[in-house]
Design a protein that fits this description.
By secondary structure, the chain is mostly helical. Helix content is 42%, strand content 8%. It has a single domain, classed as Arc Repressor Mutant, subunit A (Orthogonal Bundle), CATH 1.10.10.
Length: 77
């Protein structure tokens, strides 16, 4: 059953955790990095997130791997 906020495209942290299998700490990290915007309603202490922002955020993205982080070898003398 969809909540009224979900019908408006807004999800609580608990709903995001359940539906997208993202941990609460991951959501907070995304907020700190400016990748995700939390929304509030007057008189409600919960944070809400736009479903579309979550869906866009979890799309496949390039990931930095150990190979990409390696520095070039020092020049031979």
């Amino acid at each position: 059953m969809r909540t009224a906020m979900d019908q408006q495209g807004m999800l609580t942290i608990d709903e995001v955790e359940r539906e997208f299998a993202l941990k609460r700490s991951t959501l907070y990290r995304y907020v700190r990095r400016g990748l995700l915007t939390p929304y509030k309603r007057v008189g409600d202490r919960r944070s809400y997130f736009k479903r579309s922002e979550i869906e866009n955020l979890i799309q496949f993205q390039p990931r930095e791997t150990a190979v990409h982080r390696q520095k070039s070898p020092p020049p031979h003398k």
